[in-house]
Amino acid sequence: MGIELDDMIGEEGIRYYAVRSVIEILKDKDCNKAYAYTREICAESTYSDQYYQYFDDLLSLLKEENSYYKTRCIMIIASLSKWDREGKVARSTPQILALLEDKKPVVVRKCIEALKEIVKNCPETKSSVLKAVERIDITRFKDSMSPLIKKDIDNLYNTLN
Description:
Blueprint: H1 5-9, H2 11-26, H3 31-44, H4 55-58, H5 67-80, H6 88-97, H7 105-121, H8 126-134, H9 146-160
Helix pairs in contact: 3-5, 5-7, 7-9
């Protein structure tokens, strides 16, 4: 009949520790562990909105310098877009589309891939997505990457049209 830990910390405190824990695992130095957790969140998000509550907090990963953090984040955002009833994805579109200007081709490719799911789940983003994708300058990437990014862009257009 003592005081529960939940009562001592409070709802906001519990949420803070939960968010911190999610972000810490996604930023873990063990890339295999962090990627596995990303895949787990994405899989869970196919049938549950459990992680949607962390959407705003996860967006902070898009601003990180580390390309792994960005790619993990965009994968999760795409999977969470299914549960977006508050317009968070549409409001975050500029931050999301900024990844298309990233210097790392893997970030650009993951973003293009994620945009398929984002537009499917949030059709109001389609116009801005198409405009942003049109502006991608594939010549800024190495010759080995340019054709892959071009193929990704073509695949996105085929999916959206």
